[in-house]
Design a protein that fits this description.
alpha/beta, about 350 residues, six-stranded parallel sheet, single chain, 12 strands
């Protein structure tokens, strides 16, 4: 629904410097749409690029009215609160945006379409988390494709799987390799304009939904599948549908530097990374029932490390430990891992 020339305002109230602002960060960094501003009354007037580390000239404003004054056309809900539900305090702000004529991109579980049934002719609500029509169970057909299929796997939620995938796609396209990207969450879908909202799909159809997206890209030399969650996370049910729907030929492990346990719940320790990779590989192969993916590298999130030298050392140490190339996708790009994929 989002056209590439439409001007975006991102709602990030109280989240410009918080992990819950990951939707906004992703749109800021990767959207092809012009960004007019970020709306956050707590940070209004401050330098957005300095606060986020994302190169942008967009200002931070305090109100929807200011966003409209900057000729915004689309209001993107850029915060992912715990539980994925819209807080009551947001509704007056969204009401104001809709009254002002803005369309809305909503990546949360609560649907806004029913609330705004009467819109202007050029206005729309995109509730991303809705199950598409026509799905069926997975059949494993992705395994018959002759291309390379790279699944981003992680040690926790929100460690940078989408970012690593988009950066890998960029590196492969720079090599003139036809590369598709399957977005599986609301942020990736908002950026790319398509994909499958995996956590909104009934479990019986989840692998089929991924399979359909992968098969649609059968002509691409490489298909990158955005990962979700983590095998060790008690609240994550996405990994088996991703493995069986995509039938990946390759993995990239995504991890946050220095992290020893899950963010929530903290009592779950992250296993040694070599063992964790083998766990994914073994589950993917199911004792030989399917092919065993090749792990081609590690995407290390070093956003919390201030110094470039320290971040590079963290990557070098992990690379030596695992015998795999290791980079921070944002600081270093993914060219080394693209090389590893091409050589595999």
């Amino acid at each position: 629904m989002l056209k590439k020339n439409q001007r975006i305002a991102i709602y990030m109230e109280g989240a410009v410097q918080d992990r819950s602002g990951k939707m906004g960060y992703g749109v800021l960094r990767y959207s092809q749409n012009p960004i007019t501003c970020v709306v956050d009354s707590q940070m209004a007037g401050r330098n957005l690029a300095e606060l986020t580390g994302i190169p942008t000239s967009a200002p931070i404003v305090a109100t929807v009215e200011e966003a409209v004054g900057l000729r915004s056309e689309v209001f993107v809900l850029g915060i992912a609160p715990a539980g994925g539900l819209i807080p009551e305090s947001w509704y007056p702000v969204i009401d104001s945006a809709v009254r002002a004529g803005l369309s809305v991109v909503n990546g949360l579980h609560d649907l806004l379409g029913p609330r705004y049934a009467h819109l202007k002719d050029d206005q729309w609500i995109w509730d991303i988390r809705q199950e598409p029509a026509g799905l069926g169970p997975g059949t494993g057909e992705s395994a018959t494709l002759r291309n390379k299929r790279v699944l981003l796997i992680g040690t926790d939620m929100a460690v940078g799987k989408m970012t690593a995938g988009l950066e890998l796609q960029k590196a492969l396209l720079a090599r003139h390799i036809r590369t598709g990207f399957v977005a599986t969450g609301q942020i990736g879908m908002a950026i790319t304009g398509g994909g499958v909202p995996l956590d909104a799909i009934r479990i019986d159809f989840a692998s089929g939904a991924i399979q359909r997206e992968v098969l649609a890209r059968a002509e691409d030399e490489v298909v990158i599948i955005e990962g979700q969650g983590a095998l060790i996370h008690p609240g994550s049910s996405a990994n088996l549908p991703l493995l069986r729907g995509a039938m990946p030929t390759h993995f990239v492990l995504c991890h946050r530097a220095g992290q020893k346990e899950l963010t929530i719940p903290e009592y779950v320790a992250i296993p040694p990374l070599g063992d964790y990779i083998r766990l994914y590989e073994d589950l993917a192969s199911a004792k030989g029932a399917f092919g065993t993916p090749v792990t081609i590298g590690v995407a290390l999130n070093t956003a919390h490390i201030a110094g470039e030298d320290e971040a590079s050392r963290a990557c070098a140490e992990l690379s030596k430990q695992l015998g795999l190339p290791c980079v921070d996708p944002v600081r270093h790009g993914m060219e080394i891992i693209a090389e590893s994929l091409v050589a595999s």
